[in-house]
Structures are given as structure tokens and as C-alpha cells.
Amino acid sequence: MSTAQAVREDGTPAPAVDQPIPSTRRSIGWVGLVTAVLSSAAVLLDAPSWLRLVTVLAFVCAGPGAAVMAHVPSGRPSTSVALTNVLSLSLWAIGTAVMAWLNDWSPTVLLLVLAVATVVSVAVAELRHRRVTR
Q1: Which of 17, 68, 79, 126 is most buried, most CB within 10 Å of its CB?
Q2: What is the pTM assigned to this prediction?
Q3: H helices then E strands: how many in the chain?
Q4: Of 60, 52, 10, residue with least CA distance to 32
Q5: pLDDT of the residue at 18
Q6: DSSP of 118-130, one letter per residue?
Q7: Is the Cβ–Cβ distance between 80 and 29 less than 8 Å?
């Protein structure tokens, strides 16, 4: 593995691709936190169906993956966003498969379990970030 730094055409050093971008991780974490809280509130408070649809769909596409990606350094923001979406959909599918296998399907329970896990994970990542930046 080469330790030489990449250089742009004008001779200035190019930014390292594998450097973590904390602001991207924090933003993704906050998106996960907001979608978890809004979707849980919409379901538990029996909001209008269009509001439940929008908030739950946003959570399914971003929430659980954000809980993971808030801890994982990634080189590019676009990679972080893509992995957030893929992980979210995968975690939802795994939860669905496990509940179906157990013959105890309840989308509300799955949503609430993943939402609580998301809030806890993002809170831990945020606390870790604040402790490191002091």
C-alpha cells in the first residue's frame, strides 16, 4: 500500500478519500433521530394516514441505517447516504423476516423496536462525538 498523497493537476494535495467526515455522520445521525421520533409519534398518536405513510417511509429508508452510519467513518458523503439507505432497508427486511419466521408479525412493534434502537445508537454516537471534540 502506498503512503504517497494524491496530488491535483495544479500541484496542490488532494483531500484523502478515506478520511471520515464527522459533519456528514452527524447529519445522517440527526436524520435518523428525527425520522425515528416522527414516525413513532405518528403511529402511536394515530395521525392521519398520509402523515403516517410519509413518516414511516422516511424512517424505513433512513432511520436504522443512520443508526449504524453514525458510527462508521466513510470517505464520501454520497457513500454514507447510499449505505444509510441500503442498511435501513436491509435491517427492516431482516426484522420482517424474523417476525414472519416467528409467526408473530407486527409492523408497529418492529417500527418501535427499530426506532428505539435508532435513538439510542444516535445518542451514543453524538455523546461520543461531543466527548472527543472537547
Answers
A1: 68
A2: 0.78
A3: 4, 0
A4: 60
A5: 47
A6: HHHHHHHHHHHHH
A7: no
